[in-house]
Amino acid sequence: MKKKIYSPLALAVLLTFSACGGTQTAEVVASSVPTASTDTTEAETTAAAADDPSEMFTDRDLEIGYDEETSVRITLSGDSAASDSDAVQISGSTITLTEEGTYILSGVLNNGMVVVDAEDTDKVQIVLDGAEITNATSAAIYSLEADKVFITTAAGTENVLTNGGEYVAIDDNNIDAVIFSKTDLTLNGAGTLTINAAAGHGIAAKDDLVLASGSYFITAASHGISGKDSVRIASGSYTITAGKDGIHAENTDDTSLGYLYIAGGTFAITAEGDGLSASGYLQIDDGDFTVTTGAGSASVTLATDTMGAGKGGAAPTQTTTDAAATTEEDTTSQKGIKADGTITLSGGSFTLDTVDDAIHAGGDILIAGGDYLLQSGDDAVHSDAAVTIQDGILQIPYCYEGIEGLSVTVNGGSLDITSADDGINAAGGADSSGFGGARPGQEQFSASSDSSITINGGEIVIVSTGDSVDSNGALTINGGTLNLTCNGSGNTAIDCDGTYANNGGDVTTNDGSESNPGQMGGAMGGQGRGAR
Residue 329 has what DSSP assignment? Predict the structure, then answer.
């Protein structure tokens, strides 16, 4: 399958064309292999990246080599360390790097810390060459001041960084991660890094965070990986167990930041919060993702809908025997892939088993390719705005609703959905996180003239207890093959509250509603050609 990569600008254009109901689309295509920009400033890189994913990473982000002869060696020895460089200040078990350069660390440091405190124009590279650093009360590596810091794992080495379970203040900064950075931070290499955060986050950066290569095993009481301005991942292997989100990007001061971009990599994430989360936009071009949130979808009992649950009927409930746990889960978002902004998925392999929505966006969602196995205690795919499926293979064997948005457009791909309520639903409203109210996501979707479903192509198989395809506005079928089975009493395979037109699709239902769509919410505004 040819992969298409869409920038946020291209996403907006594509969704505009798709919403018109035709098959014409506008595409901006880029290479799926991360290429590097020259070592420009971070501001220039971020600005360019908004239109070109290849600008997400600099040459040095991707470069894992270093000159051992010109590098400074630091030997870690229990409660102390040794180095012959004036740029290295050692006070007990605290090592401070004060100048630009490459520093190679090896050995074991007990209850110690490596601090980067250089000039704000300096680039500092820390090479972990069989290093093990433990700090009982703070970060193992603390980047306080520099232009940018690189943490590189030497090829073939195993390295371990650990926090003992608390953070005691050492300055005005709220240090709360095993690797804590006030500067731009890049992790790369050809070795392995294990991070144990008995308290706080595994990795936290207060500017841009880049992970370019390497293998990472992260166990964290809070977020596994957290970046403020952005989190950008070029490649690598990530095994994350997190008490909150697996990978988290959030900027509450600037809505253009707090984004998550992934070019590729292998991800195995188990999170008590969201698997991947961004306050800005979220874009994935490739990668292999296995994500489980909470106790997974099986912890949610999906009440079958025999009286139109999508319009006020039965709702799924989460199985729990602990009243205190219920309160916490009521307010905890446990989605697989979540963004407050747009989500663009250009390719990759996704196995998501989630308590809440598997894929959720406050803005538009574009699925342009990839293979998806989605099991959700709520919606498999949910947008508060528009959902566009351009291509891809989506298997959804367990969910409350399969695909839901203010508008839903299917231009191609393969969808196989089994749902307790509607298979595809277009409705107006917004969805908030967690359980409570009439449905797990407290979704207040209702009939809306802005709602619509447009199917221009693709192969769609739906078995539902609610309506198989339900639009609270218009429903237009211009192409594609639909095989729809509705098993719910009082529901229909095709239901719409607005106009219905089949202009060329091959539609098969088990109840004849292709020629007489159900009208659960009131009379249709009109009906076009019958099924073909």
Answer: H
What is d(CA 298, CA 301) in angstroms, rounded to the nearest whole number? Answer: 7
Q: Which two tokens stand for residue 346?
A: 């250009």
Q: What is the pLDDT of residues 2-36, one digit of tens each?
A: 344 444 444 444 444 444 444 333 333 333 334 55
Residues 488, 465 contacting (CB under 8 angstroms): yes
pLDDT tens by residue, 241-296: 999 999 999 999 999 999 999 999 999 999 999 999 999 999 999 999 999 999 99
Give the rounded distance of the alpha carbon of 478 from its chain centre: 32
Asked if pLDDT for residue 392 goes beyond 70, the answer is yes
Alpha helices in 20-125 (DSSP H): 42-49, 59-62
Structure tokens at 171: 């300055």
Residue predicted with more confidence, 304 or 197: 197
pLDDT band at 325 (very low <50, low <70, confident <90, very high): very low
Is there a contact between 241 and 10 (Cβ–Cβ < 8 Å)? no
pTM: 0.87
Q: State residue 450's pLDDT score.
A: 84
Reported as a single tens digit per residue, the pLDDT across 104-125 is 999 999 999 999 999 999 999 9
- Which residues, at least 6 apart from 13, have a Cβ–Cβ distance to it below 8 Å? 26, 28
Amino acid type, 285: D
Cβ neighbour number for residue 124 with a 10 Å cutoff: 25
Secondary structure element (H or E) that encloses residue 15, with its range: helix 8-19
* CB-CB contact of 372 with 394 (8 Å): yes
Residue found under tokens 């971020």: 46
DSSP state of 310: G
Nearest CA to 520 among 532, 511, 528?
511
Going by the DSSP 8-state scheme, the letter that residue 154 receives in this structure is P
β-pairing verdict for 184-189 and 158-163: unpaired
Instruction: Fill in the amino acid letter for 76.
Output: L
316 touches 301 (CB < 8 A): yes
The CB density around residue 130, as the number of other CB atoms within 10 Å, is 18
Measured CA to CA, the distance from residue 366 to residue 386 in angstroms comes to 8
Q: How far apart are CA 468 and CA 462, in angstroms?
A: 6
Give me the residue label for tokens 């079958």.
Answer: 304
